[in-house]
Design a protein that fits this description.
Helix content is about 70%, strand content about 0%. It is mainly α.
Length: about 160
């Protein structure tokens, strides 16, 4: 009897492994059928023929030659280009600063809304002037007041009837 339980457990595990393998094969088949090939994705892209490549290269060379001639004739206005770069940099910095300020403002507004919601949930007013003042409790243990002796009882004249002789 003790031998039959481990055999049944092993048989059950074998069945589970076989079922898992079958399911895995099915899923792999589904995955394989859903894969998109590069040809399907890009469609009818054709490589350039050597003649077309030569034409494209010639056009690119012609454009670069024209730019070189244009620069030689007119020259570059370096000062203007530097000013333009500086302006672009300043605009980027300003936009970054404005973005940061906007984010900080939004964060503060969100925190304020959250505080108001928490106060509403706890029954507190958001106006500090209307909030109930907290007072000390009579049950709070603190330093107890000690009775001060009467100043008349402490005087020397009080002992002798109140008159100085």
């Amino acid at each position: 009897m003790a031998d039959s339980i481990p055999k049944k457990v092993l048989q059950s595990l074998g069945q589970i492994v076989a079922e898992t393998a079958e399911k895995s094969v099915e899923h792999v088949g589904e995955i394989g059928s859903s894969i998109i090939t590069g040809k399907e994705l890009l469609g009818d892209i054709k490589t350039l023929s050597p003649e077309d490549q030569a034409k494209k290269q010639a056009e690119d060379n012609k454009k670069s030659q024209e730019e070189m001639v244009n620069l030689r004739e007119k020259g570059r206005n370096v000062e203007e280009e530097v000013k333009q770069v500086i302006k672009e940099k300043e605009k980027k910095e300003e936009s970054a600063e404005e973005k940061m300020l906007r984010e900080v403002r939004e964060q503060r507004e969100a925190e304020e809304r959250e505080r108001e919601q928490m106060a509403a949930q706890m029954g507190l007013s958001s106006n500090p002037n209307k909030q109930k003042k907290s007072r000390g409790s009579a049950f709070v243990k603190g330093k107890k007041k000690t009775q001060q002796p009467d100043p008349i009882a402490m005087s020397q004249t009080a002992e002798k009837g109140g008159k100085m002789e």
